[in-house]
Amino acid sequence: MNPRPTPKPVTPVLPKGICCSACGCRHFEVLYTRATPAGTIRRRRQCRHCGRRITTSERVGA
Ligand SMILES: [Zn+2]
Asked: Quick one: which of 17, 32, 14, 25 has its CA closest to 51?
């Protein structure tokens, strides 16, 4: 039993700690998510700070 449960911070899940290449912030809003036939997940993200859009590709485990 843990007498002091640590609260989990609510942070957006980002692969490998990506950050905006324009302003360096790490807060992205996911515009859409799409699975590819290659077994990866592509996410279109938009920086909440400067609005720059990037596309990330994530490999699905297992
Ligand atoms: Zn930005």
From this structure: 25
Ligand 1 centroid to 24 CA: how many Å?
Answer: 6
The tokens for 40 are: 């990866």
The whole-model pTM stands at: 0.63
Which residues make up the environment of ion ligand 1, defined by Cβ < 5 Å?
20, 22-23, 25, 47, 49-50, 52
Q: Tens digits of per-residue pLDDT, 8-22?
A: 655 545 556 788 989
30 CA → ligand 1 middle, Å? 14
